[in-house]
Each structure stands twice: as C-alpha cells, then as structure tokens.
Design goal:
Layout (H helix, E strand, L loop, with lengths): L8 H18 L3 H20 L6 H25 L4 H8 L7 H24 L9 H22 L8 H4 L3 E2 L2 E2 L2 E2 H16 L3 H23 L5 H11 L4 H9 L1 H12 L2
Antiparallel strand pairs: 1-2, 2-3
Helix pairs in contact: 1-2, 1-3, 1-11, 2-3, 2-5, 2-6, 2-11, 3-5, 4-5, 4-9, 5-6, 5-8, 5-9, 6-8
Protein name: DUF5995 family protein
InterPro entries: DUF5995
Organism: Streptomyces synnematoformans
Length: 265
C-alpha cells in the first residue's frame, strides 16, 4: 500500500507507524529501519513541542520534507522496484542474509547521505540555509541518539553482535565503516551547496550523492576483512522472528524513557 505525502510531522509519524504495523503483520524486514525512523520522528516532534528548536514551525516543515523523501523511495520500491539507487540497494537486501544492524545502517546511509541535505535545502533555500545550522545540528543529534539506543536494543535479538566490536566494525558511531557523525556533517555542507543551486545544478548534485550513497551501501552490505565472517556468525544466532524483532526495535526509546522516569527522584 502506498504511503503518500505527509502534510506535517504528525502525518509523518502516522505514516511510519503504518509501515511498522504492515511490516509486523507481513514479517517484512523493511520494518527494522521504519521502527528506528518512527522513533527519531517522535523525538523530533517532542523537541518541537518543548520549544528546543529556534523555529519549531520550520522544523515541522523540515521533518515533513525529510519524511516524504523516505515515503517516496518506499512507495517507488513497492510499486516497481524504482527510486534512488541507494534506496534500491537498501530495499533490495531485505530478503538477503544481511544482519539486523546492516539493515538499519543501510537505511540511515540512504536517508542521511541523500535525503537530509535536500530536505534542508528545500526548507531554507538560498542564503536562508545559514539560519538553519543550529536546528540542523540538533535534529541530527536526536537522530544519532536514537540510532545508538536502537543499536543497543539489537543486542537482545542478536546475541553475537559484540563480535563487531571485536573486529573493529562498531566503535562509537562507526558501524561497518559508516560514520553517522561524519555523514551528518557532510550532509550539512551538501545542504548549503544545494540551497544555492538552480534546478539543473541540484539534479546533478543529487545524482552524485545518490551514486556515492549506493557505493557506501554496497560496502555496508558486503564488508571485507574479518567483518564478513563475523557477520556470518552473527546471522546464525539472530532471531528469525521478524515481527518480534520489529516490535522490540520499535519500543527502544519507550523503554529508555521509562527507565529514565523510574530513576528520577
């Protein structure tokens, strides 16, 4: 079922929740990233309501544009296996033997390295992009924080995930040679570039970003060295109950907030 275009951040949350529900029902691994992304969006919405951004209405538009990029890629893949290269690679591996954390990172790679910069440029075109810097960094910090909590949650359904630490493939925010921190900063520079370009120039830049993100996706999916045998061992011990895994990942931030509330005096 097509997700369509959201008009605001509430509709982005609802659209992502719908994808998660369908994935749980169908045992579809697309629900892994959708569960992560739903929680990011809920956290951003909370930050907007709490007044943490310089311009909450602008961030609602930003997050809506950002979410619609994912919905467009998801719908294109479901419709006829089309869409951006990096998203096609990510979705095309859903039935492969890649492990849970790879699915998450493939989605994060495509959404940060292709979609994030364009959403920012469309939110604040031209010279206005500079005023977005602080809020852009805050939304990216929220993204990184949720990514780390969800990765921690993966450990409960992927008992040998720590092997990635042993072979140096998961340290801090770096997983399978993909750095969330570095990619967030590169996305900002690309946003500034896109904000000042005309439509023809912008199309060429997006093509370049898509090609680069696809190359990274292939490296994430098929890493070399000691990482590959480690991933094979991990895959052999991971839960095959896809609906249960999705549900577990989708509750990562709720469990985090619940724990924090219980520890508060």
């Amino acid at each position: 079922m097509a997700v369509g275009n959201a008009e605001n951040i509430d509709e982005v949350v609802d659209g992502l929740a719908g994808i998660v529900r369908d994935a749980v029902r169908d045992g579809d691994r697309a629900g892994y990233f959708a569960a992560l992304y739903r929680q990011v969006t809920v956290e951003v919405r909370t930050a907007i309501h709490e007044g943490r951004f310089d311009d909450g209405a602008r961030m609602d538009r930003f997050d809506t544009l950002f979410g619609n990029r994912y919905f467009e890629a998801y719908d294109a893949w479901r419709r006829d296996r089309s869409g951006p290269r990096c998203w096609r690679t990510a979705f095309g591996l859903l039935d492969d033997d890649t492990v849970i954390v790879q699915h998450l990172v493939l989605g994060v790679n495509a959404h940060i390295n292709l979609d994030l910069a364009l959403a920012a440029a469309r939110t604040s075109p031209g010279a206005d992009i500079r005023s977005l810097r602080r809020d852009f960094l805050l939304i990216n910090d929220i993204l990184a924080g949720v990514v780390l909590k969800v990765e921690d949650a993966v450990g409960a359904v992927s008992p040998l995930l720590s092997l990635l630490d042993a072979v140096g493939a998961r340290t801090d925010e770096r997983i399978l040679d993909f750095s969330v921190r570095q990619s967030r900063e590169e996305a900002w520079h690309n946003a500034v570039l896109l904000a000042g370009q005309n439509e023809e120039e912008r199309a060429a830049t997006l093509e370049r970003l898509d090609v680069r993100a696809e190359v990274l996706a292939r490296l994430i999916a098929r890493p070399g060295g000691l990482v590959r045998p480690a991933l094979q061992l991990i895959r052999g011990t991971e839960s095959d109950d896809v609906p249960a895994v999705i549900a577990h990942l989708d509750g990562a931030m709720e469990r985090e907030h619940g724990a924090a509330a219980r520890q508060s005096p």
